Amino acid sequence: MSDITLTDGVYVRPEFVHKSLGAAGHGEVERRLTWFERISNVEPLRKFSVLILVIVIWQLYTTIWDVHELMFPTFSDTFVALIDSVVNGGLLENVWNSISVLLKGYAIGICIAAVLVVLGVTTRFGDDLLTTLTAMLNPLPAIALLPMAMIWFGLGEDAIIFTLLHSIIWPVALNTHVGFKSVSETLRAVGQNYNLRGVMFIAKILVPAAFPAILTGLRIGWAFAWRTLIAAELVFGGQVQDTSGQLGAEGSNSGGLGWIIFQNQMENQTPYVFAGLFTVIIVGIVIENFVFRNLEDRTVRRWGMQQA
Which of 199, 160, 193, 165 is nearest to 180 (CA)? Predict the structure, then answer.
């Protein structure tokens, strides 16, 4: 403060110039990535490495501790059983039987959930109906409906589809409804300014804005339905009626993946049981990464609504 002088009623501070600090160091502007960095940036390889790690731990545990095959088979025995089931046991046909039933139930469930959500966002009665039914039925395990489904629809595909609908409708409808309610008032005002009403308002404003929640509901509905399907097939998946109206015999390929697991368990073929369980896991990984992951990359990630 001593260098400041008062001149004509104005405080003046003398100017000073800093010495040059030299060129600033910016570090490495461009650097060739190492092989580990290049590999670690490939997401499928990272996920595959996790699967390999689980398999290695599985094999080491069953080998080092000499676990009996009847209790917990080694991965090598399970892999041999898996190959034998694919080549000689018709496992791929059983997997397709399960997936075809699941796709039918999934499509019907999404349509019913869509109708409930549209009613819920357009009318007060629909909102009360959806929230009440969700609170009542969503906590109810779908597999608990299987005995009644068997009485109502018999030992056939219709009973399984009815059970699947309970696993699909409520997660999809609940997440979609919550997503619609979370849409900001600004976006709603934009739709109103464009004179969008009813279904057009839902399709052009609510669905794109709430799509992360919708996608989550679709994922949860798929996972619940897949689990419910395997559990239902463990009970009577091998008794699905064929086109002639007759029941498929036990041991035939008319059943699904769950029935194959149950059949091998009854015959104490534990490696084949684990091969069936491993197939359930593989199907889940494939659907998640090749269907939902691609859908997510082409929608919410591309739109900037979700971080990579």
Answer: 199
Could you identify the residue written with the tokens 């849409």? Answer: 183
The pLDDT tens digits for 90-100 are: 899 999 999 99
Q: Which domains does the chain have, with CATH numbers?
A: 92-298 (1.10.3720.10)
What pLDDT score was predicted for residue 14? 72
- 26-73 per-position pLDDT tens digit: 666 677 878 877 877 877 788 888 889 999 999 999 888 888 888 899
Query: Is residue 215 a contact partner of residue 296, using CB atoms and an 8 Å limit?
Result: yes
Instruction: Kindly report the pTM of this predicted structure.
Output: 0.80
Decide: 175 and 99 in contact? Cβ < 8 Å: no
**300 vs 21: which has the higher pLDDT:** 300
CA distance 277 to 88: 18
The DSSP annotation for 209-278 comes to HTHHHHHHHHHHHHHHHHHHHHHHHHHHGGG-B-TTSPBPPTTSTTS-HHHHHHHHHHTT-HHHHHHHHH
Gap between the terminal Cα atoms of the chain: 54
Give the residues across from 10 on adjacent strands: 7
Identify whether the C-beta of residue 167 lies closer than 8 Å to the C-beta of residue 225: yes
Which residues share a beta bridge with 6?
11
Q: Is residue 237 predicted with pLDDT exceeding 70? A: no
Running DSSP on this structure, what letter comes out for residue 30?
S
The CB-side HSE value for 94 (13 A sphere, CA atoms) comes to: 34
Q: Predicted confidence band at 79 (pLDDT cuts at 50, 70, 90)?
A: very high
Asked if 59 contacts 74 with a C-beta cutoff of 8 angstroms, the reply is: yes
Distance CA 164, CA 225 (A): 5
